[in-house]
């Protein structure tokens, strides 16, 4: 999921805060709530209506696009006019905590049982001091979207694509499948003699940018199987981009471009991978579960959307980054008690069962996750490939540390230089030193 640099804005806003939020006045209360995902708007509009019916507290729900959304929130930190409660992202919330832009949640007072959530998700929203700043609302994992219509011509079976293996030396059967799915403009596949890597009609795999320092949808499901972790733990103070395990994985990933199996940096820059998948210019793409509705909703006579699990790596297991959203309470809200109630309700089974029934994302509550899978199945969408890592316990947490904006400012250009062919993977060692120097 896309992130933007916001550290400077947050720091400026922190200097302008006047102090603690005040309690709400008696009488009617209307909370302002913000989110960026249009696909989830109907679910949370319904949850807001149910919350109002139960508590009498009104909720004004606003959905705006990603860039405008974060601009509004960050400008609100400075101006003093903001959402009372807003959907937050793990890439940003550590800085919100450090600059005291958000309030902790009183789980005891609000009767919140954190054990109802999928394992590990609540930990993502817990500060180093043990305060809970968000209740998990949903989670996402990574799988391989592909066009089932391309398999037969490529000589690939459903069983083969569902059981791919990977290693950084020769790419394993994962690279073999990618090669077979790649087709040049003369109809020659990437694993056949005479393949023209300079004139590709359908790429076997897409590249959605460089992945920056997180690589959530691009390479993290590979590095996660190669004895590598981003950091030395949740809220860690050391990154590992200088590891040979990481660098050999990125080198292999870059080699797919050189072989003509994956588009060049220039060919993919600014291009929608999901549109390319539906159009037939790419056969397979790794991406997140939040894209299920969009991809499967693009089915046509030529595009038969399907999903396969990520490949099994050297660890002998699959891996997927485990990410999820939660709501944060703005420190400047005039209604902190009511905001706490809203966050608790949006993180409760009553709301998450509504989210489950709309089959857009996977709710964070275990029982609601099962209901969401059933709702997807009712739509004819098999989502097992996105749940297998959760069931097997092979997920790993999104890297949560301080200095996320600064880290992005270092790692994004470093990774882009590699994937555009302007630098080698060895330059990641110097980038890693710059990142770790932030913590000194």
Low-confidence stretches: 1-26
Number of domains: 2
Mean pLDDT comes to 93
Query: Please, what is the oligomeric state?
Result: single chain
Q: Tell me the span between the first and last alpha carbons.
A: 29 Å
Arrangement of strands in the largest sheet? 2-1-3-12-4
The coarse overall form would be: globular
And the CATH topology of the largest domain? D-Maltodextrin-Binding Protein, domain 2
Global structural class: alpha/beta
Would you write up a description of this structure?
By secondary structure, the chain is α/β, with parallel strands linked by helices. The protein has two domains: 7-139 and 324-364, Periplasmic binding protein-like II (D-Maltodextrin-Binding Protein, domain 2, 3-Layer(aba) Sandwich); 142-322 and 401-437, Periplasmic binding protein-like II (D-Maltodextrin-Binding Protein, domain 2), CATH 3.40.190.10. Helix content is 39%, strand content 12%. It has a five-stranded mixed beta sheet with strand order 2-1-3-12-4. Helix 2 packs antiparallel against helix 15 (349-357) and helix 15 packs parallel to helix 16. The chain is globular, with a radius of gyration of 22 Å. Residues 1-26 have low confidence and may be disordered.
């Amino acid at each position: 999921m896309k992130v933007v640099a916001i550290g400077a804005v947050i720091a400026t806003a922190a200097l302008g805060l006047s102090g603690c939020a005040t309690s709400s006045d008696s009488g009617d209360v209307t909370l302002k709530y913000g989110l960026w995902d249009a696909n989830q708007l109907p679910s949370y509009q319904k949850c807001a209506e149910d919350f109002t019916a139960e508590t009498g507290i009104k909720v004004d729900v606003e959905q705006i696009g990603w860039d405008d959304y974060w601009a509004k929130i960050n400008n609100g930190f400075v101006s003093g006019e903001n959402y009372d409660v807003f959907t937050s992202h793990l890439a940003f919330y550590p800085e919100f905590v450090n600059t005291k832009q958000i309030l902790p949640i009183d789980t005891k007072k609000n009767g919140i049982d954190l054990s109802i959530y999928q394992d590990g998700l609540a930990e993502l929203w817990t500060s180093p001091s043990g305060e809970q700043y968000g209740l998990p609302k949903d989670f996402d994992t990574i799988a391989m979207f592909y066009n089932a219509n391309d398999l037969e011509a490529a000589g690939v079976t459903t069983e083969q694509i569902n059981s791919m293996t990977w290693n950084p030396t020769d790419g394993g059967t994962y690279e073999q499948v990618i090669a077979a799915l790649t087709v040049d403009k003369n109809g020659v596949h990437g694993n056949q003699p005479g393949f023209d890597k300079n004139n590709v009609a359908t790429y076997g795999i897409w590249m959605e940018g460089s992945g920056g320092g997180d690589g959530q949808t691009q390479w993290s499901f590979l590095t996660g199987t190669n004895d590598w972790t981003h950091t030395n733990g949740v809220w860690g103070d050391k990154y590992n981009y200088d590891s040979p395990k990481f660098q050999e994985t990125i080198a292999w990933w870059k080699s797919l471009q050189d072989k003509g199996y994956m588009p060049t940096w220039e060919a993919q820059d600014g291009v929608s991978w999901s549109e390319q998948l539906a159009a037939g210019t790419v056969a397979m793409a790794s991406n997140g579960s939040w894209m299920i509705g969009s991809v499967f909703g693009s089915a046509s006579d030529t595009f038969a959307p399907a999903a396969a699990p990520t490949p099994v790596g050297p660890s002998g297991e699959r891996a997927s980054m485990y990410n999820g959203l939660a709501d944060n309470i703005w420190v400047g809200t005039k209604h902190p008690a009511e905001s706490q109630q809203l966050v608790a309700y949006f993180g409760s089974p009553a709301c998450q069962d509504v989210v489950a029934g709309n089959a857009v994302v996977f709710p964070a509550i275990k029982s609601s996750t099962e209901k969401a899978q059933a709702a997807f199945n009712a739509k004819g969408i098999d989502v097992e490939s996105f749940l297998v890592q959760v069931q097997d316990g092979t997920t790993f947490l999104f890297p949560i540390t301080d200095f996320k904006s600064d880290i992005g400012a270092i790692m994004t250009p470093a990774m882009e230089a590699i994937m555009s062919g302007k630098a080698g993977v060895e330059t990641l060692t110097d980038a890693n030193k710059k990142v770790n120097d932030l913590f000194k």
